[in-house]
Amino acid sequence: MQKNVSLRHFNTFGLESRAQFFEEVKSIGELTDIIKNPVWKEMPKFILGGGSNVLFTQDINALVIKMAIKGIELLKEDQDFVWLHVGAGERWHDFVMYCVEHDYAGVENLSLIPGTIGAAPMQNIGAYGVEIKDVVETVEAISVESAEIRTFSKEECLFGYRESIFKHALKGKLIITGVLFRLNKKAVYHVEYGDIQKTLTEMNVESPSIKAISEAVIRIRESKLPDPAKIGNAGSFFKNPEISSEQFDKLKSDFPTVPGYPTIPGFVKVPAGWLIEQAGWKGYRDGEIGVHARQALVLVNYGGGSGAEIRALSEKIQKSVKEKFGVSLSAEVNFI
C-alpha cells in the first residue's frame, strides 16, 4: 500500500491531486483481500480506471484503488454471435482493436474512446450512433461492503444516455470487475451518423467493413479531439442536451441553423458543442485552461491549470448557454 501518491499521471486532464493511500489491483482476489481487510474496511474508497472521465478538484482523502484486472476471454459462440468476457482494467480501445482484428462487429464505432472496460458501463459510453448498451450482456461487480460478487443483466444496469445504475443508485457501493459482451459475426454497419460516410468516401472505401469504419472513426476523432498526451482533456465535457420538441421548435425559430436529432418521441437532442460555439466559447483561453480551438465540447488544461479553474470555466459556459438559448448543459465528466 502506497501513501501520498500523485495522481497527475492517472488522469487525462493531467491535474495534480494526491491520494492518501493508493493500491493497484490485478485480480478479484487482491480486491477481495482489500475489502475484507479490517484496516481498510471503514476507509472511503475511490475506484480509478483510466482517469479519462474525472476532474480532480482536490486531494483524495481515501484509498484510491487503481483497477488493473486484465484479460479478454472467448466464453462461447454460435453462428451469429460471440461472447467475450473482458477484465475491468483492460483499455477500451485495446478491446475494440481486438474485436476489429477478429472481425467481431458492434464496437467499431466506439474506436479511440479513452478509458477502461470497467468505466464504460457506468457512463454507457457511446459515439456515432452506437452505445455500449447495444453490446453488453452482463456486468460483474463486487460489493465494497461485503465483497459479494454480483452479476447484472443488461436490463438491471438501467442504461440511459450516459447513465446507468452504477452512476446513481449504486454509486460507491460496487466495483465493476468485468463485463460480458455479445458481438456480432454478421455486421450491421452504422455509417449514417456524423462524418463517417463522408470519411469512408475520402478513404476510397466503396463497401463498408468493420476495419474501415474503425479507421474512419479514428481519423475523425483524431482530427477533432486533442491528444491527452499533448493537451490535458477528458474528451466531451458536456452531454448533448435532450429537450422537448416544443422547446426545440421555439429554439429553431430564434436560431434557424440549430441542429437537432429526434430521440424518443417528443424529444430532440441538440449538440452541446454547437451551443457552446455559438455562445462564443470556442478557442477561449484563460491562462493555462480553456476551450479547444477545434472542438468547443472539449475543455483543456494546457499544463498548469487546476481542476477548480476548469470547473469554474464549465460553470461559466453553462450559465452563458442557458442565458442565450434557454438550454441547460450537464457535465459528462465527474467532479471529484
TrEMBL record:
Transmembrane segments: none annotated. It holds the Pfam family MurB_C. The active site is at R162, S236, E332. One of its GO terms (cellular component) is cytosol. Keywords: Cell cycle, Cell division, Cell shape, Cell wall biogenesis/degradation, Cytoplasm, FAD, Flavoprotein, NADP, Oxidoreductase, Peptidoglycan synthesis. Its cofactor is FAD. Its EC number is 1.3.1.98. Its main location: cytoplasm. GO terms for molecular function: FAD binding; UDP-N-acetylmuramate dehydrogenase activity. GO terms for biological process: cell division; cell wall organization; peptidoglycan biosynthetic process; regulation of cell shape. InterPro entries: FAD-bd_PCMH, FAD-bd_PCMH-like_sf, FAD-bd_PCMH_sub1, FAD-bd_PCMH_sub2, MurB, MurB_C, MurB_C_sf, Oxid_FAD_bind_N. Residues 14-186 form the FAD-binding PCMH-type domain. It is an enzyme of class 1 (oxidoreductase). It catalyses: UDP-N-acetyl-alpha-D-muramate + NADP(+) = UDP-N-acetyl-3-O-(1-carboxyvinyl)-alpha-D-glucosamine + NADPH + H(+). It is found in: Cytoplasm. Belongs to the MurB family. Cell wall formation. This is UDP-N-acetylenolpyruvoylglucosamine reductase.
